[in-house]
Amino acid sequence: MVYFIRIAQRQFIRTILSINKTRAYFYIVFLKRYLRRHSSCFLFLRLAQELRAEVISPDLNIFERMKHSVYVLKSEHSFDSAHFLANYEGKCRSIHGHRWRVIIEIKSAALNTDGQLDGMIVDFSKLKKDLKEEVDYFDHALIIEKGSLKPSTLTALEEEDFRIVEVDFRPTAERFSKYFYDRMTSKGYQVKSAMVYETPTNAASYEEDPHGAV
Fold first, then answer.
1. Nearest Cα to 181, choosing from 202, 201, 209?
2. What is the CB neighbour count within 10 angstroms for residue 213?
3. pTM
4. Which ranges of the chain have pLDDT less than 50?
5. Tell me, what's the pLDDT at 162?
6. Smallest Cα–Cα separation from 94: which of 103, 102, 106, 82?
7. Which string of DSSP letters, residue by residue, matches the chain?
8. How far is it, in rounded angstroms, from Cα 51 to Cα 212?
């Protein structure tokens, strides 16, 4: 009986290989990782080991298939502003300021081939202009999360002509990195990452993980 089971399992995997070797390889990796402790799968996993050489044979060249080269452009702009973090314990619980640096990376698998943009993803001047528009909105302002200040405090600041920018999120470097990622994406850029420096040595970044590895 075991002999026939082994034949059936071998034929099953070879069928998968004939259709999609890459998928078969990851299927086997999955089984080895999650089903190793199940005795009922022992023969199957042993067979997978025996066929491993077939799965990652030179004709498959799986690592070459997984390569994905892209061009990346990077642009940076900065702004000076204060922010307030409600419910924070420590010296940063008071209104305080930073020189924020915003770094955007955009990507593309191909370059333009016509006219002025030949050999480029986009003109740097356009990328810089679009980033500057987003960043300058916060320059020389007090950034607060909506509802985080008492109405009387907010009114007093506005009566003194303080420039207040209210946002829908707690104004941390992490939240800002996601904010600028989304804003530049909405402008049509294929954003690779957005990084926001709160101090010269402390930064947060946001990028999307297409493979769900995290």
1. 209
2. 5
3. 0.68
4. 39-40, 56, 58, 60, 63, 65-66
5. 95
6. 82
7. -HHHHHHHHHHHHHHHHHH-HHHHHHHHHHHHHHSTT-GGGHHHHHHHHHHHHHHT-TTT-HHHHH----EEEEEEEEEEEEE--TT--SGGGS-EEEEEEEEEEEEESS---SGGGTT-SS-HHHHHHHHHHHHHTTTTSEEEETT-S-HHHHHHHHHTT--EEEESS---HHHHHHHHHHHHHHTT--EEEEEEEEETTEEEEE---TT---
8. 28
**Domains of the chain from N-terminus onward:** 2-64 (no CATH), 71-206 (3.30.479.10)
> Is there a contact between 141 and 191 (Cβ–Cβ < 8 Å)?
no
Give the β-pairing of 96-108 and 71-83: antiparallel
Q: Rounded CA gap, 75 and 129, in Å? A: 10
**What is residue 75's predicted lDDT score, i.e. its pLDDT?**
98
- pLDDT tens, position by position, 105-143: 999 999 999 999 999 999 999 999 999 999 999 999 999
